[in-house]
From TrEMBL:
<dbReference type="GO" id="GO:0051213">
    <property type="term" value="F:dioxygenase activity"/>
</dbReference>
<protein>
    <submittedName>
        <fullName>Phytanoyl-CoA dioxygenase family protein</fullName>
    </submittedName>
</protein>
<keyword id="KW-0560">Oxidoreductase</keyword>
<dbReference type="InterPro" id="IPR008775">
    <property type="entry name" value="Phytyl_CoA_dOase-like"/>
</dbReference>
<dbReference type="Pfam" id="PF05721">
    <property type="entry name" value="PhyH"/>
</dbReference>
<keyword id="KW-0223">Dioxygenase</keyword>
C-alpha cells in the first residue's frame, strides 16, 4: 500500500467530520490484484447461509449481480488485505483501539443499477454502538456511476428513521449532501452515524466498491453473531439486502453464478 495510507491521521478532522478519505491508497499492482479478486468473488455461485450473493433486476429486465456478503471466509487474499495491515490499522487509529472486522460486503452497481436511500449504518448493525465503515473503491467512483454522498458533521447521533430504518425523508431533504467521487484504489472511512446515500449508475460501466465495517476489540468479536442474526432475520424477507431497507432497487438472493453480470 502507498505511504500516504499511513501518513499521520488528523483525529481532529475525523472527530469534526466523521470522515477520512485516503486517495490512491493502493499501488497499481495491489489494485489490479484486488480487481481480479473481486471479479472472482462476483462470479462464484451463492451458497445458502455462506457466500451470500444477490442479484438486481434492472430497468431493461436484465439481472445483474448487485451484492456479495460474507466473503472473507472464502478468499485468502481478501481476508488478509481486509483484516491485517494498513486498512484495519487506520480503522484502529480512528477507533482508538484495535479494530476487528464486524462485516464485509461488495456492492457492484452495474449500469442501470440502483442507489441507496439516505441512511446511517448504526441501526443496521446489532450488538454494537460504535463502528466505522471503510469503502474501498475497486473502480473509479463518479457522479455518473453513483458515488457515495455524505452529510458532513452530522454524526453525533441517530437521526429520526422511517419504517425502513432510513433517515426520515423530510430530515434527509434538509441535510447538506456532498458527493465523494474517488479514484479506484482509494479508501473512504466514515463513522456509523454519518448520513449517506447514493444514486443510480447512469454510466455504461460497473462501479464496484467493498464496504468493510470494523468495531473496537473491546466490544468483542461480533462478525459471526452479525451474520447469524442477519441470516435468521432475513429468512422471511429474502429480497432485503440488509437489516434496514435502504436499497432503492429490486434484489433477490442468487444461488448460481451470474454470467451476464460484469463487463
Ligand atoms: O455503494 C453505494 O452506492 C452505497 C452503499 C451503501 O450505502 C450501503 O450499502 O449501505
Amino acid at each position: 500500500m502507498r505511504d500516504n495510507a499511513t501518513s499521520t491521521i488528523d483525529l481532529d478532522n475525523w472527530n469534526r467530520d466523521g470522515l477520512l478519505v485516503v486517495e490512491d491508497a493502493l499501488s497499481a499492482r495491489e489494485l489490479q490484484e484486488l480487481q481480479q479478486w473481486v471479479f472472482d468473488i462476483e462470479h462464484r455461485p451463492g451458497t445458502p447461509n455462506q457466500l451470500l450473493q444477490y442479484d438486481e433486476t434492472i430497468a431493461d429486465g436484465g439481472t445483474r449481480r448487485c451484492r456479495t456478503e460474507n466473503f472473507v471466509p472464502y478468499h485468502d487474499g481478501l481476508r488478509t488485505l481486509l483484516t491485517v495491515g494498513r486498512i484495519p490499522d487506520i480503522a484502529s487509529s480512528l477507533l482508538g483501539e484495535t479494530a476487528v472486522l464486524y462485516k464485509e460486503k461488495i456492492n457492484y452497481k452495474a449500469p442501470g443499477g440502483s442507489g441507496f436511500a439516505a441512511h446511517q449504518d448504526a441501526p443496521a448493525y446489532p450488538y454494537v454502538s460504535n463502528t466505522i465503515a471503510c469503502m474501498v473503491a475497486v473502480d473509479d467512483s463518479t457522479l455518473a456511476n453513483g458515488c457515495l454522498e455524505i452529510a458532513r458533521k452530522m454524526h453525533a447521533a441517530q437521526l429520526p428513521t422511517d419504517a425502513r430504518g432510513c433517515v426520515e425523508p423530510e430530515v434527509a431533504e434538509n441535510l447538506s449532501w456532498e458527493p465523494l467521487p474517488v479514484s479506484a484504489g482509494s479508501l473512504v472511512f466514515f463513522h456509523c452515524y454519518v448520513p449517506h446515500r447514493s444514486g443510480a449508475n447512469t454510466s455504461d460501466s460497473t462501479r464496484r466498491a467493498i464496504y468493510l465495517t470494523y468495531n473496537g476489540e473491546s466490544d468483542g468479536q461480533l462478525r459471526e453473531s452479525y451474520y447469524a442474526k442477519r441470516i435468521h432475520d432475513l429468512a422471511d424477507q429474502p429480497d432485503q439486502l440488509s437489516l434496514i431497507g435502504h436499497f432503492s432497487g429490486t434484489a433477490k438472493p442468487a444461488s448460481s453464478s451470474n454470467k451476464e453480470g460484469q463487463a
